[in-house]
Amino acid sequence: MARAHDAVLSFTFEDERRARTVEHSVRPEVGAIAGDRTTATLDREAATVTVTVEADDLVALRAGINTWSTLVSVGEAADATACGSL
Fold it and tell me: InterPro entries from the xrefs (predicted)?
């Protein structure tokens, strides 16, 4: 069932390895985050990770955008720390 609102978040990294690492770090959250009003999908093509958030209303959409932006940011920071980039 299509939701009333959606947003597509694209995150492009400096290389495919980093994008793959971030994708793998956040993929377990797809479908695991409780919420009846939002859903999310995750895709990666080369160095770009794309999250599509769909929601029943704008409040839920904003919450979904904030959640997924934070998850990707944490995945990126963890990778940077592991690689000594910070």
Answer: CTAG/Pcc1 (IPR015419)
DSSP letter string over 34-69? --SSEEEEEEEETTEEEEEEEESSHHHHHHHHHHHH
38-45, strands of its sheet edge to edge = 5-12, 48-55, 38-45
Range of the domain at 22: 5-84
Predicted TM-score of the model (pTM): 0.87
Q: What is the pLDDT along the chain (86 residues), one digit of tens a residue?
A: 678 999 999 999 999 999 999 999 999 999 887 678 999 999 999 999 999 999 999 999 999 999 999 999 998 888 777 666 55
